[in-house]
Write a structure and sequence with these properties.
The complex is a heterodimer. By secondary structure, chain A is mostly helical. Chain A contains ten helices and no strands. Chain A has one domain: Orthogonal Bundle (MetI-like fold). Chain B is built from 16 helices and no strands. The radius of gyration of chain B is 24 Å and the shape is flat. The chains are: A mainly alpha, B mainly alpha.
C-alpha cells in the first residue's frame, strides 16, 4: 500500500475520533468555553448576523437569535445536551439489549420465542409516535427524552445479539462447558458475552449517530429537553420562523449535528471493518 | 411451508395485540382529554357529562374491552376533538400522505438503484466516490434541517418554490425531496454493495464470457439479483418513511397522517392516536411478514431457523 493510501485510510479513523474528542471536551467544559450563558438575552443585539457577515460583530461570532442569545454559546451548551442524552440512552439500550439477546439466544425455546415477539413489537412500533406519546404522558424533560429513546432502541441490539448468541451456543466450547457443569449464567457471561463483544462495540459506535439524530428530531418537534436549555434540534426549530431574516439560527446547529453523526458513522464503519468484516456494507 | 406461514401469522397477530395494549394504556396515562376541552366557565356536571360522552367514566379494563370489540367490527371510534368518525379523518389524511409517500418511494427507489448500480460498475471512480460521499452525508444530516435549508434556498432566497401548504405541482417538490431523503442514502449504499457482490459472482462472469453486451449483463442479469437486497429491509424503509412523513408534514404544513398524529397526541385525541399507531404497525408488521415468507420460499433453511 502506498504511503498516501495508508494515511487516507487512517484519516477515516483519526478525523472522527478528533471530532468526537472535541465534542466531549466541549460538552464537559461548556461553562468555561461559552462566551455567554445559554439563556442570556440581549434584545438590543437580537438577530445579529455572524461575525464575517455585514452587520456582524466579533462579540457574537455565530450571531444571535430572536431574543439576542448568542448562537455560539447555545451551540456549545447544546453539545452537552446532545451528548449526555445520547450516551445515556445508548448505555441503557446496549445493556438491556445485550442481556436480553444473550439470554434469549442461549435459552432458546419458549423464552426465546417470547422475547423475540416483544422485540417484534418494539421494532414495528412507530418510534417517533411513541416518543411523542411519552413526552405528553410524562411531560417533557431530560429523563423523558432518555426513556423515549431507550424504550424501543434495545430491540435492535437484542435481535442482532440473539442471532450471534444462538450461533455461539451450538459451538463446541459451550457444549464442553455445559458438560463439565458450568452454570448457565456463567456460560452466558464468560463464554458467550466475550464472543459478541466485537459486534456490540460496532453496534454501539454506529448508534451514536442514530441517537443524536433521534434526539435532535425530538427536540425539533418540541418534545425534547424543554427551553431555555438549548439542544441542537430545538435551535434549528427556533430559527424556522425567522428564516427570511436570519438564516444563521437554523444553519449552524444542523451542520454540527451532521458533523458529529458523520464522525460516529465513519468510526463505526472503520471499527466494523476491523472487528467484524462479515458485516461490511460499503 | 404452510406451517411456517401459520406460525408467522400467529406471531404477527400477537405482536399487533401487544401494540394495541401498549398504545391504549399509554395514551390514557398521558392526561385526561376533558381537561383540554373545558373552559374556566365549565361546571363540574359538564365535566362529568363530557367524561361519560367520551366513555372515559368506565374502568380501564372495561374501556379496553369495548375498544377491542369495536375494533373487531372495524370501528375505530370517534375523534374526541372533532366528533367525527376516526375512519373519516384518516380517509381525509391518508390520501395526502400517500400523495407524498408514493412519489417519494418510487422516485427514491429508482434513483437509489440507478446511482447504486452506476457507482458499483464504476468502482473507485470519481462518480463512485461522489455517490458514496452523498450517501454518507445524507445519512448524517438531519432530515428536518435539510428541509429547512431547502426552504431557505428555494423559497426564501430564490423564491422559486412555495415554503409550505398544498397546491399544484410546485408544492410537491420540496416535501417529496425531503421525504425521499429518509430512505435514499441507506438504500443507495445497500444497492451498491449488493451489486458489487453480484458482479463478482460466477454467473456474471459466464454471461460476459458468452459475449452478452455489458449493458445487458448489468441492467438485466446483475440488477435482477441486486434489487432483492433492498427488499429485505423493506420494513425498515417503511418505518423510515413513517418518520419521514411525520417530520416532512410538520415542516411543510401538509395535512396528512404525520401531522394528524402529532396534533392528536398533543390534543389527547385518544382514538385518533390509537388508530394511527395501529395502522402503521400493521403496515410494518405486514411488510416484514411478506419479506419473511418470500425468504422462506426461496431458502428452506429459514423455515426451521426462524420459527
Amino acid at each position: 500500500m502506498t504511503r498516501w493510501g495508508r494515511i487516507s485510510r487512517d484519516l477515516v479513523m483519526i478525523l472522527p475520533v478528533t471530532v468526537l474528542a472535541v465534542l466531549i471536551f466541549t460538552a464537559i467544559f461548556a461553562d468555561v468555553l461559552a462566551p455567554y450563558p445559554y439563556d442570556k438575552t440581549a434584545l438590543p443585539e437580537r438577530l445579529t448576523p455572524p461575525a464575517w457577515c455585514e452587520g456582524g460583530s466579533t462579540k457574537h461570532l455565530l450571531g444571535t437569535d430572536t431574543l439576542g442569545r448568542d448562537i455560539l454559546s447555545r451551540a456549545i451548551y447544546g453539545a452537552r445536551v446532545s451528548l449526555s442524552v445520547s450516551l445515556l440512552a445508548i448505555a441503557i439500550t446496549a445493556i438491556v439489549g445485550t442481556a436480553l439477546g444473550i439470554f434469549s439466544g442461549y435459552m432458546g425455546g419458549r423464552t426465546d420465542a417470547f422475547i423475540m415477539r416483544v422485540v417484534d413489537v418494539a421494532l414495528s412500533f412507530p418510534a417517533l409516535l411513541l416518543a411523542i406519546l411519552l413526552a405528553v404522558s410524562l411531560g417533557p424533560g431530560f429523563f423523558t427524552v432518555i426513556f423515549a429513546l431507550s424504550a424501543l432502541g434495545w430491540a435492535g441490539y437484542a435481535r442482532i445479539i440473539r442471532g450471534e448468541a444462538l450461533r455461539i451456543s451450538t459451538s463446541d466450547f459451550v457444549a464442553q462447558a455445559q458438560v463439565i457443569g458450568v452454570s448457565p449464567g456463567r456460560i452466558m457471561l464468560r463464554h458467550i458475552f466475550p464472543n459478541i463483544l466485537n459486534i456490540l462495540i460496532v453496534g454501539i459506535t454506529l448508534s451514536v449517530g442514530a441517537m443524536i439524530l433521534a434526539e435532535s428530531a425530538m427536540s425539533y418537534l418540541g418534545i425534547g429537553i424543554p427551553p431555555p436549555v438549548p439542544s441542537w434540534g430545538s435551535m434549528v426549530a427556533d430559527g424556522r420562523n425567522s428564516l427570511d431574516s436570519a438564516w444563521w439560527i437554523s444553519t449552524f446547529p444542523g451542520i454540527l449535528i451532521g458533523m458529529v453523526v458523520m464522525s460516529g458513522n465513519f468510526l463505526g464503519d472503520w471499527l466494523r471493518d476491523r472487528l467484524d468484516p462479515r458485516l461490511r456494507q460499503l | 411451508m404452510t406451517r411456517f406461514i401459520v406460525v408467522r401469522l400467529f406471531q404477527m397477530i400477537l405482536a399487533l395485540f401487544g401494540i394495541i395494549v401498549i398504545v391504549f394504556f399509554l395514551v390514557r396515562i398521558s392526561g385526561n382529554p376533558v381537561l383540554f376541552m373545558i373552559s374556566p366557565l365549565s361546571t363540574q356536571s359538564e365535566v362529568e357529562v363530557l367524561q361519560k360522552q367520551l366513555g372515559l367514566d368506565k374502568s380501564y379494563t372495561e374501556q379496553f374491552w369495548i375498544y377491542l370489540k369495536d375494533l373487531a367490527h372495524g370501528d375505530l371510534g370517534e375523534s374526541f376533538v372533532k366528533r367525527i368518525p376516526v375512519t373519516e379523518m384518516l380517509g381525509n389524511a391518508l390520501p395526502n400522505t400517500l400523495k407524498l409517500g408514493i412519489p417519494s418511494l418510487v422516485l427514491g427507489t429508482v434513483i437509489a438503484i440507478a446511482l447504486g448500480v452506476l457507482a458499483a460498475t464504476r468502482r473507485d471512480s470519481i462518480f463512485d466516490n461522489g455517490v458514496k460521499f452523498l450517501a454518507i452525508l445524507g445519512q448524517a444530516l438531519p432530515g428536518f434541517w435539510l428541509a429547512i435549508m431547502a426552504v431557505l434556498v428555494f423559497s426564501v432566497h430564490f423564491q422559486l418554490l412555495p415554503a409550505a401548504g398544498m397546491g399544484g405541482i410546485e408544492y410537491y417538490i420540496l416535501p417529496v425531496g425531503t421525504m425521499m431523503f429518509f430512505m435514499l442514502p441507506g438504500m443507495m449504499r445497500l444497492v451498491r454493495s449488493t451489486m458489487l457482490d453480484v458482479l463478482d459472482s460466477e454467473y456474471i462472469k459466464l454471461a460476459r464470457i458468452k459475449g452478452l453486451p455489458e449493458r445487458i449483463v448489468i441492467w438485466k442479469h446483475a440488477l435482477r439479483n441486486a434489487v432483492t437486497a433492498p427488499m429485505t429491509v423493506a420494513g425498515m424503509m417503511l418505518a423510515g418513511l413513517v418518520t419521514g412523513a411525520v417530520i416532512t408534514e410538520n415542516i411543510f404544513n401538509w395535512p396528512g397522517m404525520g401531522k394528524l398524529a402529532v396534533e392528536s397526541a398533543f390534543g389527547r385525541d385518544f382514538p385518533v392516536v390509537q388508530a394511527i399507531t395501529i395502522i402503521v404497525a400493521v403496515m410494518v408488521l405486514g411488510m416484514n411478514f411478506l419479506v419473511d415468507i418470500a425468504y422462506a420460499w426461496v431458502d428452506p433453511q429459514i423455515r426451521y431457523e426462524r420459527t
